[in-house]
């Protein structure tokens, strides 16, 4: 019998996977010799999931914008004032959590007491505690966070661009919601979202470190059996149909900045992709931006020499099944000149075969190095997992992408009708 080498074998990593009866997926990546263990417990639930049909219900539920982020915050509050942060600190560990458009992730990083840290992480995520008083208290805390973001020029630049690119897709909305939307959140709203999206069948645990995979999986499985959760139906998420056109071509805002901030984006109307198809499109457009505006690209150097950009200027593509977009930007003394040069050259700048092959080798090298950075590795694994992508497929897909494919996607993606610009100008009328 011919042995078919798996993608993981080709990169020299062998994760151990297990799916429990509850549907919870566990992935343990042994890293012998590493002192630190890093674990994430993530749910396929993010800020865009505000319209859905709960398990066993015929009715569609609409919840306030920002509730996924609010729920993430509230998971750290437990009865009798039990402090989860303090418990992790007692174990010599660090914990944090973050909410994105399509996922919410809880994590710990530890050098010892890994078993106790796993138990604490499980209890953190699996024991919700929402009351009228603690929800009302949290509203004030998150309102301050939202107002802080409203005063940050970089955040306004990006948020204004998202509102300009998208008319209806909830990716246009700030992850934390608005002051007005979070004020309407109730404990019942939080419990509905928790019961719908924090079911094990919608979640994954990823752990990497110098551990015994069977022991880790056994510990989690024993814990999950005590919960005795009933099977969960597939979640029906409801998203509005996004029109092809952008909402606005240009948004300008004045704020206390010394130098104008400029950002331009392209909305991708090719949505609905999953797995390797989504990965291939993501990698292809990302390669395009590295060739056009990476630090060693001729266009980047010309813009830098002219003084239109600094070393922090960047361009990137991001995507999920329900959206995709490119963003580029940074500080510039002359937004109009920068935009004019880019629009003149982005569509015609030569893409050189030698640069392309060198770039692919560099990307594969960075992918291999990713496995030595547990935090970035866990982030990438979770992001790919919920998009139906096997992280280990990245090198093979990268190798298979041709320069002609990059060129084809450049012509398809960089369309004027899908472009919008956001600018933050100094408060003074003269620039």
TrEMBL record:
Pfam families, per the entry = Peptidase_M16 (PF00675), Peptidase_M16_C (PF05193)
GO MF terms, alphabetically ordered: metal ion binding
Organism's domain of life? Bacteria
Q: Can you give the residue ranges of the Peptidase M16 C-terminal domain?
A: 184-343
Q: Which SUPFAM superfamilies match?
A: LuxS/MPP-like metallohydrolase (SSF63411)
Q: Which residues form the Peptidase M16 N-terminal domain?
A: 65-178
PANTHER family named among the record's database cross-references: METALLOPROTEASE, ZINC-DEPENDENT PROTEASE
NCBIfam families, alphabetized: YfmH_fam (NF047421)
Query: Which named protein is this?
Result: Insulinase family protein
- Provide the species name: Sulfobacillus acidophilus
Question: Top-down, what is the taxonomic lineage of the species of origin?
Answer: Bacteria, Bacillati, Bacillota, Clostridia, Eubacteriales
């Amino acid at each position: 019998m011919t042995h078919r080498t798996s993608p993981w074998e080709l990169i020299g990593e062998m994760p151990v996977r297990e799916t429990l009866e509850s549907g919870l997926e566990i992935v343990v990546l042994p890293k012998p010799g590493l002192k630190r263990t890093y674990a994430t417990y993530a749910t396929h639930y993010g800020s865009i999931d505000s319209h859905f049909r709960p398990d066993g219900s015929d009715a569609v539920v609409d919840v306030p914008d920002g509730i996924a982020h609010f729920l993430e915050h509230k998971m750290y509050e437990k009865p009798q004032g039990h402090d989860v942060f303090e418990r992790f600190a007692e174990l010599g560990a660090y914990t944090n959590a973050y909410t994105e458009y399509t996922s919410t992730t809880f994590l710990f990083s530890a050098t010892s007491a890994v078993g106790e840290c796993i138990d604490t992480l499980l209890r953190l995520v699996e024991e919700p505690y929402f009351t009228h008083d603690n929800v009302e208290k949290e509203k004030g805390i998150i309102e301050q966070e939202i107002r802080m973001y409203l005063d940050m020029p970089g955040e306004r630049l990006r948020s204004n661009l998202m509102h300009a690119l998208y008319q209806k897709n909830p990716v246009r909305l700030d992850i934390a919601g608005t002051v007005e939307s979070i004020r309407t959140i109730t404990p019942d709203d939080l419990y509905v979202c928790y019961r719908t999206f924090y079911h094990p069948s919608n979640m994954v645990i990823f752990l990497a470190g110098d551990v015994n995979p069977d022991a880790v999986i056994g510990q989690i499985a024993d814990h999950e059996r005590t919960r005795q959760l009933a099977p969960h139906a597939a979640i029906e998420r409801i998203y509005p149909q996004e029109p092809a056109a952008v909402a606005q071509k240009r948004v300008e805002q004045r704020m206390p900045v010394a130098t104008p901030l400029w950002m331009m984006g392209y909305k991708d109307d090719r949505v609905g992709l999953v797995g390797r198809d989504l990965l291939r499109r993501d990698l292809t457009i990302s390669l395009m931006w590295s060739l056009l505006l990476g630090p060693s690209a001729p266009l980047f150097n010309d813009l830098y020499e002219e003084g239109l950009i600094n070393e922090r200027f960047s361009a990137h593509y991001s995507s999920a099944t329900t959206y995709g977009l490119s963003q580029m930007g940074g500080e510039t003394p002359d937004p109009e000149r920068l935009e004019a040069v880019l629009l003149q050259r982005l569509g015609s700048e030569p893409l050189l075969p030698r640069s392309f092959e060198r770039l692919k080798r560099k990307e594969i090298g960075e992918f291999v190095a990713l496995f030595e950075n547990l935090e970035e590795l866990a982030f990438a694994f979770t992001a790919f997992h919920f998009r139906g992508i096997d992280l280990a497929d990245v090198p093979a897909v990268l190798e298979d992408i041709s320069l002609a494919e990059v060129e084809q996607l450049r012509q398809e993606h960089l369309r004027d009708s899908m472009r919008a610009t956001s600018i933050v100008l100094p408060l003074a009328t003269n620039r």
